[in-house]
Each structure stands twice: as C-alpha cells, then as structure tokens.
Amino acid sequence: MGASVILYLIFWLFDVISTPVRRTFRTIRQMLCGPTANMMAVELLTELPMGLLSIWLLHTTKFALNILNQMRFKRIIREMEDLQVRGKLPKPPSKNALPPNQWSPMYPMEAVKSRMFVTIHELVGPRWNAVGTLGYFAVCARHSGKLQVSLVDLKKSAKHFTVVVYAGSKTVANVGTMQLSEHQWQQEWLDVTFPAKVRMPTLGIRLYGCHEESRFPAVRIPDNDVTIIGESVPCGEALDSQEVFDVLRTKEIYFYRALHWHMYPMLCFVRALPLALVRRTFLPAGNAETGYAWGAVHKSCRLRFECTDELWGLIDMLYVVIYTRGSITMASFEIPHGRRLFLSAPVVEDGFFLVRMILGSEGFAAQRRRLAAGQKAPSNDPTMYSFQAAPQQLKITCVNAEDVLPPEHVSPRETFTAAHAPRLSLGPVQA
After folding, report:
1. Do 384 and 302 sit in the same domain of this protein?
2. Within a domain: residue 224?
3. Which residues contact 301 (CB under 8 A, 6 or more apart)?
4. How many angstroms separate the CA atoms of 425 and 431, rounded?
5. What residues have CB less than 8 Å from 247, skipping those under 6 apart?
6. Superkingdom, according to UniProt (predicted)?
7. DSSP alpha helices (H): ranges in 130-269?
8. 136 beta partners
9. pLDDT tens sequence across 153-207
10. Same domain, residue pair 295 and 416
11. Last residue of some domain: 63, 93, 123?
12. How many other CB atoms are found less than 10 A from the CB of residue 376?
C-alpha cells in the first residue's frame, strides 16, 4: 500500500502542475474545432504521463487488495470447514462479507454508503451496471461442482436472466436465457455446473426487464448432506438504481479519478489502440448475452444514436450508461426498441459511455451457429460476445448541445429522463 500512496501523491502533484496547460489546450481546441472535437494529439503531453501514473496506481492498489482478499478467503474457508465438520452453518465472518446461503442485492443502500465498499468496486468492478437487477449468493456448503436454480422463479421474474458462478473475481460458469434448449426451458430447476475444485463459489444473477413481482430464485445444493434452499428475496428490495447512483455521486473522491484517469484519453484515441487492449481494460465482467459499444463523451455535448432495423432484429434491449472520469455513473437511460434516432441529454463533464445490448433470440442463434462452426467473428460483428457494433448498424456521434432531431423522429409521447437529471441539470432526454 505504501507504493500506492507514493504514486497517488505523484499523480496529484503532476495534476496540480499541469492543470493550467490542460485548460489552455482545451480552450484552443474548442475555439478551433468546436466543443465536439476530440482530444488533440498535443494534449497527450500532459495526459500521457498522468495516464501512465493512473494505470500504475490502479494495478498496484489492486495487487495489494488481492493479497488482502486471499488472506481473508483462506481464513473464511478454514472457519467454514471447521463449522461444517461440527454440522453447523457458518456465520458471516464480518459485516462486509456476503451472508452465507442467502441472496444479497448488489447495491443495498447500507453498502453503498460505505466508503470501503465503493472503493473496492472502483478497483474490481468500476463500470457500474445501471440497468439490471443483480444479486449474489455465497455458497457456503460442500458441493461437487453442481448447483440448481429455480427456473420457475426466474421465468416469473424477468424477461432475460443470466446465471454466473464466480471463483473470487473469475467467472467459471455462465448460463443465460438464450442458451437454454427447449427441453431445459420446460424444467423446474436449472442445472449449473462448474469445476468442483472451486472451494467457495459465489452465484450471481443478472435480471433484465424485471416483472412487477420479481424475485431472486431459490437455490439448491444437491450434493450437500442436507440440501440447502436459499430463500427467494423480492427484487423490489434491491433499491432503485437512480437512488443508489445519487448516493454514489456524493461518494466520488479525487482518488477514484486518479484510478481511472487513463480511460478518457484511451477512448479518445481508441482507433489507434488494439481492440483487445481496450476491451480488457474498459469492459466489465463478461456476459455471453450482452454486446457492448463504447467511446468518449465531452462536456456540454450530446450523444446521437442511429440504429438500423437490422440491429434491432438482433437485440431486445439497448441501454446507455454515461460515466464520469472516475467511473461513477453520471446518467443512464434505455433507447426504446425500434427507435432509429435518439438524442441524449447534454453531459456536464468529460467522461465516457458504455452501451449494453442484450441479444435477442435471433442474435444469440447467430452467435451459437458461429461458435458451433468454430468461426471467429470480426470485431465489429453485433452477434458476438463483447462486440463493437458495426458502423452501418449502430452509429454513435458526439454532437452539440443545441442539436435537435428531425421533426419526423420526434414524438412528444415518448420522452426519457437521464438519471440525476434534476440534480445535475441534465434536462430531459429528447426522444
């Protein structure tokens, strides 16, 4: 941790010294090219050193956190094994740990109010998901690499769902709506298999398009001496994402911006960088039924989305999340299905955006056909995991705040408001 403190102080000092230079470059850019202009190459004179310090700080801090987590997990596993031998269920080892064998909503307000919780997620999961209902289930029982999740509960709860098994922060199993065969879809329980060597797996659920009476599903561990059924928890208990992100915005500190400072210039010059590097650095944990598009967004600009009918034929949902330079959600909204043109509200500061596209049955069928044939799809194919949609299917541009949509695309009955619109004065998103 000492190295992280030293790097942070160096970053802060360089930021203080270079701020007047960066402001001058920005003013010149806006005078010459307008507010929507991308960062100039000369601006890398200040952004590149700070970006390298940011990357170094992020990885140094994550390394220290991983060592602490490994020590904590080893202690928890020893406690669990000792308690299991005596036939007792383990108790949570600390207030920050997931309670055993029960669902925990991803963003409970008491956790978000914790500075430690926010800091850990800024390190291990910085791209906050504003669109799906998430929950985790810590499996604290003997197993042989098999869990069962109530498919009845899942079908009643949401239009789309994904079941993920984690070993620490690594994904070891993934089953989603579009991966199920017709026979599997008719069953009451969904079998989830993963390597038996995973000693303390964590089950994660992503629910998209939740129904009114959504519930986290029941869980069965069939290989335990006594089958444990996790209690279903209503998704309504997971607090509204806008309320959570309002609290997160108040928790943003300079340290988070230092950790993720490199993201903005990286996405400004994304075309000059290897696509694999950008994906590995920027994208969140993978979901086989989600495609991604991303880029930088500049202060006082809007994002203009042009979607083709071909793209809407492949996907069911399209969500947009705009982040600050500290990777805290600034705004989030859904583009109505079938809409060809869409304009976001003006953003209040430099940042970046991430578009999540939930594949429909046709898109996922195309993906499975390619995988079965052993073909590797091009990087801009919108039917593959972690895709960057083809320009002819999804075009995203940064436009002036004064820009409006053509009259034929404006519908007064369909308006969407970005998250934090009242507090940040983003205003309504023009439909």
Report:
1. yes
2. yes
3. 35, 36, 346, 347, 398, 399, 400, 401
4. 17
5. 109, 112, 113
6. Eukaryota
7. 151-157, 182-185, 241-251, 254-260, 263-268
8. 104, 204
9. 888 888 778 888 877 667 788 887 777 777 888 888 888 888 888 777 778 888 7
10. yes
11. 93
12. 9
Q: Are residues 345 and 225 in the same domain?
A: no
Are residues 319 and 422 both part of a single domain? yes
Given a contact cutoff of 8 angstroms between Cβ atoms, the answer to whether 222 and 149 are in contact is no
Residues 300 and 397 in one domain: yes
Structure tokens that stand for 169 in this block? 């922060």
Mean pLDDT of 323-337: 87
**30, containing H or E segment:** helix 2-33
Same domain flag for 38 and 112: no
Statement to judge: residues 383 and 294 lie in one domain = yes
Any alpha helices (H) in 34-94, and if so which ranges? 44-85
Q: Does any domain span residue 300?
A: yes
Residue 318 has pLDDT above 80, yes or no: yes
Q: Is residue 263 part of a domain?
A: no
**Whole-angstrom Cα distance, residue 21 to residue 46?**
8
CATH number at residue 154: 2.60.120
**Calpha distance 64→197 (Å, rounded):** 25
HSE of 143, CA atoms in CB hemisphere, 13 A: 26
More confident residue, 33 or 227: 33
Q: How high is the pLDDT of residue 69?
A: 66
> What is the pTM for the complete model shown?
0.74
DSSP 8-state symbol, 37: P
Would 247 be classed as within a structural domain? no
Compute the distance between CA of residue 126 and CA of residue 119 in angstroms, rounded to an integer.
Answer: 9
Q: Are 96 and 116 in contact (CB under 8 A)?
A: yes
Instruction: Tell me if 165 sits within 8 A of 172, measured CB to CB.
Output: yes
Q: Which of 68, 93, 118 is a domain's end point?
A: 93
Regarding whether 103 and 88 lie in a shared domain, the answer is: no
Q: Which of 345, 150, 165 is nearest to 230 (CA)?
A: 150
Q: By C-alpha distance, which of 126, 125, 5, 116 is closest to 60?
A: 5
- Which residue range(s) make up the domain with 119? 98-237
CA distances 371 to 4, 385, 391, Å, are 42, 11, 23
144 CB-near residues (< 8 Å, 6+ apart): 196, 223
Distances (CA, A) of 278 to 121, 265, 281: 20, 12, 5
State both tokens at 285. Answer: 């944990």
Our count of domains for the chain comes to: 3
pLDDT at 102: 65
CA atoms lying within 13 Å on the CB side of residue 101: 17
